[in-house]
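Q: My labmate handed me this sequence with no annotations at all. I'd like to see what the chain might look like in three dimensions before we decide whether it's worth expressing. Could you predict it?
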Amino acid sequence: MILGIETATEVCSTSLIHNATVLAVRTVKEKNIHSERLMTFIDEVLKESGCTLAELDAIAVSIGPGSFTGLRIGVSTAKGLAMARNLSIVAVPTLDAVAEGFRLAKNDKATATFCSMIDAKRQEAFSCFYSVDEHDIQRISEYVIDSKEAIEKNAVVKNAVLVQPEVSAVPVALLAERRRKEFDVSDISHLEPLYLRDFIATTAKKKIIH
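A: Here is what I predict for the chain of 210 residues:
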């Protein structure tokens, strides 16, 4: 069984899967909720499926790109649980998980080109292009950050689907199970999120007078 964790966006989600079957899932989309809800969601999916941490085969975590704060919470939680229970971590790039979500939602068997996108603020987005069929996804470009306008123009040129699926921990866990050898982390102590750009602190617009 694999526990999935998704915190790279405003979505906070956990899932539990076994042999490509979803046993339980919890998802909420709300800003700044990850630290409050993540452990509760983990407990809930384990209880719903009658599973304990000791019975897990691995923890799959969405490693970015995405929200700096959300990624830190997700990765640190995965590392803490893995170290405490001697579990493996499967680090799934978030853009890959979005593409997997598109594959799961696809209702035909034709191969499609899909543009996976995650909001990066300031009219920018993280993106990557994939070839998607009924069995798997294949990355056909690099992970990049660019203006949304430039990404959308590139998608039109490539005749790529731009409609994004709902984000959740389900595709994270399913992709981790299917392609575990590719994403398995050999040394979890050195696991870091995939940010793609440096953190830029913002300053308050109004001064606070004490």
